[in-house]
Design brief:
It is a single chain. The longest helix has 29 residues. 45% of the residues are buried. The protein is built from 21 helices and no strands. Helix content is 68%, strand content 0%. α6 runs parallel beside α9 and α10 crosses α12. By secondary structure, the chain is mainly α. The protein starts with a helix and ends in a 26-residue tail after the last helix.
Length: 434
C-alpha cells in the first residue's frame, strides 16, 4: 500500500463522524491517564523533581544551585525518598526561568505547580500541532487534531504518563520547538525567537536548532534576539555567588553527568551507543557536538541559493534536519524524541512511499519502553540498554531518510505554490510535488 493510499484512507476517516469521535475519545483518555498523576501526593517522586524544586528554592532565596551550599540545603529538606548523596545540579543556568517560580512553594505545592506547567505546555503544543497540520494541508480544523495530539502524547507514547511523573520539562521544550517551526512556516519572527529561548532551556535539543536558525538569513535576527535573552538568563542564573565560580562549578558538575548509571553511553541512544556497543569506544560529548555543528553548517550552505524564495522555503527543512541530527549524534533519552511528533507531521505531507518507513521508525520510538519490557520478559536483558537499542535503530532510520531527502533533492523540484491554507509554502523535505 502506498503512502498516498494510506493518507487518503486517513483523510476519509477523519472527515467522518468516526474520526471526530476518535479524536474526542483520545483527548478524554489522555486526561484520564495524566490527571491522577498530577493530583496524587505524596508519592515516590523521581529524583529529577527533587532537584528542580531544590534548585528553584535556592534561587528564590538568593543562592545558587551551583554553589557548595546546594548539597547541604538539599540534604536538610524533608523530601521523601531522596538520595543519600545529592547530585550536582546539571541543568543550565537559564533554567532559572522554569524553576525559580517553584521556590515560592513548598515541596508538595510545587509539585502541583510544575505538573500544571507541563499540562499547559501540552495543551499549547496540541493547539500548535493542530495549527501546523492546517498549515501543511493535513487538516482544515484545529479542534480534532489538537484532541488527537493531546491523547497521543499521553497514551500513544509509552512514556506519556512518565513525562508527568518525572516532571521533566520536555513538554515545554516541545511547545517551544513547535513555535520555532511555525514561526518559520508562517514567517512569525517573534514566535521563532520565543521558541528558540524555550528550546535552549534544553541545550541537548535546542542548541542545534538555534545554530541552524543563526545560519539562515531569514531567521538570524530572531536567533540573535533569542541568544541575547538566553545569555541574560544565564547571567542571572549564575549571578549569586559569582558568575565565574558558578560557571566553573557547573562545568565540573556537568562532567560528572555520564558517571551515573542511566547516563552512561551504552544506556543512551544515538551514535555514541553504536560506537560503544560495536567498538567499545566512548567518543564523549564534544566530538559528536562538533561534527553535528559542522554538518548543520554544511546543510545550511546546501540550502543557500540565488533564488530568495527557494532559500527561504528551506528554513523549516533545516530546522527539522537539525533536530533529527542532534537526536542521532548526541546521547539521548527516550523522552527527548517527543518533538519528532511535530517533525513527522511536516515530513509526511509529501505522500512519499518512504513515509511508511518513517512512520514505522517513529512507532518504534513511541513504544520503545513497551517493546523493551516485552523483550526482557521473554529473552531477558537490562531495561536501559534495551530501550537504547530500540531508540538507536529507530533514530538511525529517521536520520538516514531525512539526510537523504535534504541533501538528495534536486533544486529544480522545489514547489513554490501557496499552501492550501493560504500560508506561504515553506518548502518540502524531499523531492516531487503532490
Amino acid at each position: 500500500m502506498t503512502a498516498a493510499a494510506i493518507q487518503d484512507a486517513i483523510g476519509a476517516f477523519r472527515a467522518g463522524p468516526w474520526g471526530q469521535g476518535a479524536a474526542i475519545l483520545a483527548g478524554a483518555l489522555g486526561l484520564i491517564a495524566i490527571v491522577p498523576e498530577i493530583l496524587t501526593y505524596p508519592k515516590p517522586y523521581a529524583v529529577d523533581y527533587h532537584y528542580f524544586w531544590a534548585a528553584g528554592r535556592v534561587w528564590f532565596e538568593g543562592g545558587s544551585p551551583y554553589g557548595p551550599g546546594f548539597a547541604e540545603f538539599f540534604a536538610s529538606q524533608p523530601i521523601p525518598d531522596k538520595d543519600d548523596i545529592p547530585r550536582p545540579f546539571f541543568y543550565p543556568p537559564n533554567a532559572i526561568a522554569l524553576y525559580w517560580p517553584l521556590g515560592r512553594f513548598d515541596h508538595a505545592d510545587a509539585w502541583l505547580v510544575i505538573s500544571l506547567m507541563n499540562f499547559l505546555a501540552l495543551a499549547l503544543a496540541s493547539y500548535l500541532f493542530a495549527r501546523l497540520c492546517r498549515a501543511v494541508g493535513l487538516s482544515t480544523t484545529y479542534l480534532y487534531p489538537a484532541l488527537l495530539h493531546f491523547g497521543f502524547i499521553c497514551i500513544g507514547w509509552s512514556i506519556g504518563k512518565i513525562l508527568f511523573v518525572f516532571a521533566q520539562p520536555i513538554l515545554v521544550i516541545y511547545a517551544g520547538f513547535l513555535l520555532v517551526l511555525l514561526g518559520a512556516l508562517e514567517r512569525r519572527s517573534l514566535w521563532l525567537a520565543i521558541g528558540l529561548v524555550i528550546c535552549l532551556l534544553k541545550p541537548q535539543i535546542g542548541l542545534a536548532v538555534f545554530f541552524a536558525c543563526l545560519l539562515h538569513n531569514r531567521s538570524r535576527a530572531a536567533a540573535l534576539a533569542a541568544g541575547a535573552v538566553t545569555a541574560l538568563l544565564c547571567l542571572v542564573g549564575f549571578w549569586s555567588g559569582g558568575v565565574l565560580d558558578n560557571f566553573s562549578n557547573y562545568i565540573s558538575g556537568f562532567n560528572l553527568y555520564s558517571n551515573f548509571y542511566e547516563n552512561q553511553p551504552e544506556r543512551l541512544s544515538g551514535l555514541g551507543y553504536i560506537l560503544m556497543t560495536i567498538a567499545g569506544v566512548d567518543i564523549g560529548k564534544l566530538a559528536p557536538l562538533g561534527f553535528l555543528l559542522v554538518l548543520i553548517a554544511v546543510a545550511a550552505y546546501r540550502g543557500r541559493t540565488s533564488d530568495v524564495p527557494q532559500r527561504d522555503a528551506r528554513l523549516p527543512e533545516l530546522i527539522i534536519f537539525s533536530c533529527v541530527a542532534t537526536l542521532f549524534f548526541l546521547p539521548s533519552h527516550n523522552n527527548y524524541y517527543v518533538p519528532l511528533t511535530a517533525a513527522l507531521a511536516y515530513l509526511v505531507r509529501e505522500r512519499r512511499d518512504g513515509d511508511i518507513v518513517l512512520l514505522a521508525a517513529f512507532a518504534l520510538l513511541t513504544q520503545s519502553l513497551s517493546i523493551s519490557n516485552a523483550w526482557i520478559n521473554v529473552f531477558g536483558g537490562a531495561l536501559y540498554e534495551t530501550v537504547a537499542l530500540v531508540d538507536t535503530v529507530a533514530i538511525a532510520i529517521v536520520f538516514s531518510i531525512v539526510f537523504a531527502r535534504y541533501f538528495g533533492r534536486p533544486e529544480s523540484t522545489v514547489d513554490h505554490r501557496p499552501a492550501r491554507t493560504g500560508v506561504a509554502d515553506a518548502g518540502l523535505i524531499g523531492g516531487g510535488n503532490d
